[in-house]
Amino acid sequence: MKFSQILVCICRLLFPFMLLFGFYIIINGHLSPGGGFQGGAILATAILTTSLIDNEKLANLNLLVKFEKYLFIGILIIVIASFFTRGEYFTNFLPVNSDMNLKKIFLVILNFFIGIKVATGLVAIFSIFIEEGR
Amino acid sequence: MNMMNIVNLLSMLLILISITIIISKDNLKLIVFFSAFSLISASLYYLYKSPDVALAEVAIGSAIIPLIFIISISKQREFVVISHVDDDFLRNCGLIKGVGYRILEDFTNYYGLKLSIYSNDIGKLYGIFRQRDVDLIIDKCPNTENYLIKGKESSILMNKLEQITEKYDRVVVLKVREGETYD
């Protein structure tokens, strides 16, 4: 598909700001509305619109799809880490009576991994949908 | 104007837009209306004090869903042909056109489709884990030197293709049943 020059230019201009906003929502997820899913959806929107309009910029979506599978192992490791420190799954891996500012680390890490996972998952769905029948 | 007035106004606009979506016939216009619908509903979510849902609605409803519709509309008008022949039959360079290319061009112009021909490259991996959806396969019979055009039996377009190819004596149309192999 051939797109007009104005659209391509605006798309290139907006791409870093969309990425920035997505990462802001992911990393601030434990303090403000939003979090992993919402930020991941914004990241996926940025990647998909750029790859559809400006073909040369993001040529290889398959690399992101491969990256998704390794991220899943990361989420599992974070979730299971609490078994070795506290003795039960799916909770914070820091001790119960530790400082509140320290406990936030768990939420930030989990939000970050979930955000990247959602973004790459949506990109995977789309790259299958775009290349169907080609 | 207090907040309740804004909410009422936006709700009325939402109803109007949804009626327009149902009535309108033009597909591309409909996508723009759909995008406006989800933006207005996102602002309504924000006014009803759930900014969490509004963020997800803005990202998904106003960008990803219109993208899905645009891609599927542009896919609808494509006619995929795979060729296994490597001579002049399907050549297209300016004024000189092969016989087969002229047949397919007439056929796709009749139905207003976009013709796209791919050569034989089954070894390449397209997509991630799915088969390609093919409309026609063009082959050459080694014994009789005839060109074979294979298509699905269930497709209605094949009858028109048979009518066109009646004039050419070296071109044969074969109808393949749905489950049989494609290679």
Automatic annotation (TrEMBL), chain A:
What would be one Gene Ontology cellular-component term for the protein?
Answer: plasma membrane
Q: Where in the cell is it found?
A: Cell membrane
Keyword entries, A-Z: Cell membrane, Membrane, Transmembrane, Transmembrane helix
Does this entry carry the keyword Nucleotide-binding? no
Domain of life according to the entry = Bacteria
- The residue ranges crossing the membrane are 7-27, 67-85, 105-130
Q: Enumerate the spans annotated as Na+/H+ antiporter MnhB subunit-related protein domain.
A: 6-123
How does this protein lie in the membrane? Multi-pass membrane protein
Q: Name one Pfam family in it.
A: MnhB
Q: Does the keyword Cell membrane apply?
A: yes
Concerning its family, UniProt says: Belongs to the CPA3 antiporters (TC 2.A.63) subunit B family.
Task: Specify the protein name.
Answer: Na+/H+ antiporter MnhB subunit-related protein domain-containing protein
Q: Name the lineage.
A: Bacteria, Bacillati, Bacillota, Clostridia, Peptostreptococcales
Automatic annotation (TrEMBL), chain B:
Report keywords, A-Z. Cell membrane, Membrane, Transmembrane, Transmembrane helix
Q: What is the predominant subcellular site recorded for this chain?
A: membrane
Q: Which residues cross the membrane?
A: 6-23, 30-48, 54-73
InterPro entries, sorted: MrpA_C/MbhD
Respond yes or no to whether keyword DNA-binding is given for this record.
Answer: no
Give start and end of each MrpA C-terminal/MbhD domain: 13-77
Q: Tell whether Membrane is among the UniProt keywords.
A: yes
Q: How does it sit in the membrane?
A: Multi-pass membrane protein
**What name goes with this protein?**
MrpA C-terminal/MbhD domain-containing protein
According to its UniProt entry, this protein's organism is: Anaeromicrobium sediminis
